[in-house]
Amino acid sequence: MVKHIDKGVSVIHVVKKWMSFFVLVLMTIIVAISIVELGIILYLDLFDPKDDVLFLEIDELFRIFGFFFIILIGFELVETVEMYFKDNVIHAEVVLLVAVIAVSRKVILLDLEKYDPFAIMGLGIIVLALGGCYWFIKQSYRVKNS
Predict the structure, then answer these.
(1) Are 91 and 83 contacting, i.e. CB atoms less than 8 angstroms apart?
(2) d(CA 69, CA 108)
(3) pLDDT 10s digits, 79-133
């Protein structure tokens, strides 16, 4: 009976590895498509025949920077899945970095007039908490490597 359980766990482990590889390939494709789309959007915004100048308007800049942050989040997610695929461990540092980038994107693109002041303060607390967690993880690596 124990042999059957060990064999079943081994099969599940192999299937899980293949699934994480498939997710890694799909995420890489999505990030690559996003980069191409960002290039197209940037080109169309810069060389718009309606505009006489090559400058971007503020709403276009916010949209493009938001797109950059989405791509950065995609890179970090690909790295997270890649680390899981290689080490079979999810690294908290990378997951926190994804969260910091996502919240930073939200803060940068936030329209302050739309939100309640308490919601904005809550978002600030989230940023501080994530930054603190990231700092503690970095400190633990320094102590461990000393």
Answers:
(1) yes
(2) 10
(3) 888 887 777 777 788 888 888 888 888 887 787 788 888 988 888 899 899 889 9
